[in-house]
Each structure stands twice: as C-alpha cells, then as structure tokens.
Design a protein that fits this description.
By secondary structure, the chain is of the alpha+beta class. It has 9 helices and 24 strands. It has 3 domains: 130 residues, no CATH class; 83 residues, no CATH class; 108 residues, Beta Complex (RNA Polymerase Alpha Subunit, Chain A, domain 2), CATH 2.170.120.
C-alpha cells in the first residue's frame, strides 16, 4: 500500500528546526569589548549653534557590544579594516539646544542608535559614561578677511574683494575671518584673482566657513621681497676630514665678511639671521699647499625659504683671502 508523503508536516518540521537554530544563535550572544568609537557633532542640525564636547567637534569613546555571532563577526571585520564606528550627535534632537552646559549620558544615547539596532547589536556599556556638551549661540557679524600663507604668516594681497564677509560667530573673541593659500594658489593669484571661502577659527581648533567667497589677487613675487642687511654676519669654515683638527684659517682681510645684503621676506630674513653662520667658506685639501688662497664664500640660506623663493642674494658673494696655519700639538689636542 502506497503511503502519502505529508508535505505539510515536513514543512512544519523544517520551519521549527530553523527557528530553533535562529533562537540558539540569538540566545548565545557574543561580547565585543572595548571597541573604539567616535561621537561627532552634527553641525548641520543647527547652524546658529556651536555645539562641542569640551570645545572639540568629536569625542573618542569605547563601547562594549553584544549580539549574535554573525553580527559580532561583521563588526570585528570592520575593526580589522580600521573602520571605526561613528555616532552623530544632534543637539536639537537630544533637546540640548539651549545655550549652556549639558550632560550627555552615553549608554541610553548609544542604545537607541538606529543603525546599531538594525545590525542586531546592543551596546552593553561605554566609557566614559557621560560627556560634557557645551552649546554657544552664534551671532551674525561682518568680519575683515585676513590672508595667510601655508606657514600661517600673514600675506599682503594686491586686492581682496570683498574685504569683509558675514559669518556666524560667538559674540566675543572672533575678530577676523581667514583664508589660507597654498604656494600654488599664491602663484595662481599673481596671474589672476582666485576665489576662496573664508573661515573662522573657533576655540579648540574648530573652523566654520563663511557664507560668501572672496576674490584674491596677489602682487608680483618681487614685491614681496624687501632689501635687508644682515650685520654682523658670521663666517663659518667647512673642512674635510683630512684637514679637520690640523689647520686653522687665517683671514687676511676679515672686514669684507662683516655684512651681507639680501632680498627676502621678513620671515626668511629672520630665519637667515638666526643661522649659526650666515656665510660658509669651504676649505679644500690643496689649500694647505698654497701660501695665500682666494675663494668666494657661500651664503648659508635656509633651504626651506630657498625652495619657496623667499630669499636671494642682493650682492656678489664676498671673496675671502685666507691662508691655512698648521696647528701645534697643544692646539690640536694631539699628545706628543
């Protein structure tokens, strides 16, 4: 007698088996401890507020997660790929948009995160437990614009339009809006005006962009360099290892080495003035065979400012007249 296959019962058994496995997976939650995470202020939530964690736009925290094996494995994979989980803090949504200080208790804040819940994860604990939230109301002000170079030294543009911009800033302390130009942008601005967005600097290193842009035209490079005389200038000697400690240099007319004339930016001039030696005289091994030698010195310009074309000689290098004098045993420090 042929028995009928009862597909309904088979389907029920398969479904129950699957449910048992799913329940078992859920019941055996795994723990992922001390996972690094970041909470970032959502600045777009309320542009007229400056919200910070102790004057910083983000805070580093550690969280302990629990969840099924698959979810924990995926989260571990993110950590292995150096992808740190980030949480956005909306002061308006958290009802902390009134100016002043607020306490953000992290555990309930993190536990309601939608993305974490959708991944099947749960935040079990966190460190620290609470963050200080500071809220400052911003006001609209017209601020003069200041141009800066890559090294943050002020630049003097040929033209700047407009010379002032409106920006949302704290009521006190912010005096200027800034634009920072790279070396390449400076060179472009010498040819034709370039457009940049000014920004304001908030305490703690945060910045906010102004609503409008400005057009900047820089003067020709020559106009940035001024004439300077470095006096007294110091002359240094560079010996090879063959002559080191065996000879000393006697300048026949040292007065020619007392000053240097240069063209430079103010920053380059100061860096050059602070060099141990403004000029270098290179001593060659064969100089010991000649009674009197003549050789131009080399200006010891700081390499950083040479590369930026911010310093150059404004005179021919002086020619040093010198002779080499052998050192005695006592002068050289060699025991007889």
């Amino acid at each position: 007698m042929t028995r009928k296959i009862k597909y309904g019962k088979i389907a029920i058994v398969v479904a129950l088996t699957a449910l048992i496995w799913i329940w078992a997976d859920l019941a055996l939650d795994e723990i992922l401890s001390d996972r690094p995470a970041i909470i970032e202020v959502d600045e777009s939530a309320s542009p007229k507020l400056w919200v910070s964690f102790n004057q910083a736009s983000s805070a580093d925290i550690k969280i302990t997660l629990s969840g099924p094996h698959t979810a924990i494995a995926n989260e571990n994979r993110r950590l292995g790929e150096k992808k740190i989980r980030k949480f956005a803090f909306d002061a308006v949504q958290e009802k902390m948009d009134r100016p002043g200080n607020h306490d953000l208790w992290l555990l309930p804040f993190l536990q309601k995160d939608k993305q974490i819940r959708e991944l099947g994860l749960k935040v079990e604990s966190c460190e620290p437990e609470v963050l200080d939230v500071n809220v400052v109301e911003l006001v609209n002000k017209s601020l003069p614009v200041q141009c800066l170079g890559e090294d943050r030294i002020p630049l003097k543009p040929e033209s700047l339009e407009p010379a002032a911009v409106d920006a949302l800033v704290p009521a006190n302390n912010i005096l200027t809006a800034k634009v920072q130009l790279t070396r390449r942008e400076i060179e472009q601005a010498r040819i034709s005006a370039i457009e940049k967005t000014p920004y304001i600097e908030l305490p703690g290193g945060q910045t906010r962009n102004a609503a409008a842009t400005v057009k900047i035209k820089m003067p020709p490079a020559e106009d940035e360099l001024a004439d300077y005389t470095i006096t007294p200038a110091t002359l240094g000697y560079c010996f090879s290892v063959n002559l080191q400690g065996q000879y000393k240099v006697e300048l026949i007319d040292p007065t020619d080495m007392s000053m240097v004339s240069i063209k430079a930016t103010l920053a380059a001039k100061e860096a050059y003035r602070q060099q141990p030696y403004q000029m270098i005289l290179y001593i060659e091994d064969d100089d010991r065979l000649i009674e009197e030698q003549r050789r131009p010195v080399v200006f010891n310009f700081p390499e950083e400012y040479i590369l930026k074309d911010e310093i150059r000689q404004n005179q021919e290098p002086p020619t040093a007249r010198f002779r080499l004098i052998p050192l005695t045993s006592s002068e050289s420090g060699i025991e007889e």
